[in-house]
Amino acid sequence: MDIEDPSGWAAVGVAVLAVLIAFGAWWAAHRSAEASERSATASERSAAASEELLHQECTPRFTAKIEEVSQWRLDVRLDGPLDLDDLSVESLDDELVFNTGQFGIDKEPVPAGHEAAGGRPGRRVAWTHSDYPDGTRAGIAIGETAMWRVSAADDHVRADEVTLRMRARVGKEEWIVLVPVVVPGSLRPTGYIG
Predict the structure, then answer these.
(1) CATH at residue 110
(2) What pTM does this model have?
(3) Rounded-to-integer distance, Cα 119 and Cα 137, Å
(4) Of 86, 90, 60, 94, which is closest to residue 74 (Cα–Cα)?
(5) Max Cα distance, the chain (Å)
(6) Contacts for 188 with CB less than 8 Å, ≥ 6 apart
(7) Distance between CA atoms of 189 and 96, rounded to whole angstroms?
(8) Tens digit of each residue's pLDDT (9 = 90 or more) over 87-112
(9) Three-class SS of residue 52?
């Protein structure tokens, strides 16, 4: 190229300008990709937070009580906010057991320390509300009460209150809810009043 050739310099100028434009386009695309990635990450976090909030808002609420009705009975009422497909209940305290001989009580051998007095075995572990012999799914609706016969594992329950672990399911969503229940002082191993 001749130093005094204007067309040569024009070609160099156009080439330099093309390189600068290409660099500018690459820089803009790079910044756009970064911004898009940040936006996608923020969107994922927002969606996860919304999903978690919805899961929390849909956490089942229960009312539980033990009452005398010819035998001692645990009543668990679903207060909302959704009807449940499945419900199981577990006594977290060794002192309260579910009497056998009722639907849904675990039929496995009684674990050591979980035998009620008088030869009446009991279960600390849960009853599943949908566990019917014919395999049907029953679930529990808002306002309905599930009932189980219960008794003390020893000669009497020493605690004023026991904790129940509720496992609730709707579709693929599952919740674990801890529910306190007041224990009547006269609750005995047989489950019968007297």
Answers:
(1) 2.60.40
(2) 0.63
(3) 32
(4) 90
(5) 119
(6) 72, 151, 152, 155, 156, 194
(7) 9
(8) 888 888 777 888 777 766 655 444 44
(9) helix
